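Duplicate of #3305? Posting structure anyway:
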């Protein structure tokens, strides 16, 4: 979600809209809390501009970290240093990439995975075939797992009505 985290960069005289989120960069055995900048043209700044494919490689190698060792040393530049104690992470690399892809879609005014899911649900509700339910289920499963509880915009229901609808009669959600 972009919210009010708006930024931009200039390339060839053009203003490229973007947003940011926090991540950890692992460099020299230390973890640095920093900002990950995501831009509409698909470039991502994680201490250097990279494409989405290159970003996936940064995640695969652990440069952009999504898991943290017990006792690992971390820093927020010129603010604090600490060691991880019982670290827990909610994002696997594939989830972070999926969220970044959704953010690029949002920055370009395109439907993200949630929008595509809700469109597929609308198709199912207009024509309740099992084929349309299967398409809605597939679209729901394409929403990054970390975002699936918020598709309906009601944090309290945790999208249970949507999960029940796409699962179908008698299925587990």
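Output from current build:
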């Amino acid at each position: 979600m972009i919210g009010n985290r708006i930024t931009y960069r200039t390339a060839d005289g053009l203003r490229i809209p973007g947003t940011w989120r926090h991540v950890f960069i692992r460099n020299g055995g230390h973890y640095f809390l920093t900002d990950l900048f995501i831009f509409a043209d698909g470039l991502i700044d994680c201490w250097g501009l990279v494409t989405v494919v290159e970003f996936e490689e940064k995640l695969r190698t652990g440069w952009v970290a999504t898991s943290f060792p017990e006792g690992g040393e971390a820093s927020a530049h010129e603010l604090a240093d600490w060691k991880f104690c019982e670290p827990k992470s909610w994002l696997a690399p594939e989830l972070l990439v999926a969220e970044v892809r959704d953010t690029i879609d949002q920055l370009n005014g395109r439907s993200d995975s949630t929008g595509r899911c809700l469109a597929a649900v609308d198709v199912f509700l207009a024509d309740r075939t099992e084929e349309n339910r299967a398409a809605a289920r597939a679209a729901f499963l394409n929403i990054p797992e970390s975002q699936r509880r918020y598709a309906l915009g009601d944090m309290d229901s945790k999208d249970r009505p949507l999960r029940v609808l796409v699962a179908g009669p008698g299925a587990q959600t």
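Confirmed duplicate; merging threads. Helices lie at 52-61, 93-107, 113-126, 130-141, 160-167. The chain has a mean pLDDT of 93.
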